[in-house]
Amino acid sequence: MTTIKTICDNCGDVELTPDEIALELEPSEDHGHYVFDCPSCGSLQRRPANPRVVSILLATGVAYRVLRPEPITEDEIRRFAEALNREVDPFRLLTG
Ligand SMILES: [Zn+2]
Fold this sequence. Notes:
Layout: E1 4-8, E2 12-16, E3 21-25, E4 32-37, E5 44-49, H1 51-59, E6 63-66, H2 74-86, H3 91-95
Parallel strand pairs: 3-6
Antiparallel strand pairs: 1-2, 3-4, 4-5
The structure holds zinc ion (ZN).
Zinc ion binds at residues 8, 10-11, 38, 40-41, 43.
């Protein structure tokens, strides 16, 4: 299986498989972000993906979703941040 090398803020170099990564694309853009749970420390990582990274991730079979076009409001960011502070497993918030 394809291995994707990336960086965790806590651990440094880590290796992931495509099904451990989710790609978030901006509407009408060729760049976005990718998110993953670090296999070493378990923390949620979110990193920018430039067009080259996006094409590589898509080529390896990483699942993606296009973010809704409406900008996120300050209130949504605040509530999400509060939820993250309460949530033991932040990644669960992204799957609901
Ligand atoms: Zn880590």
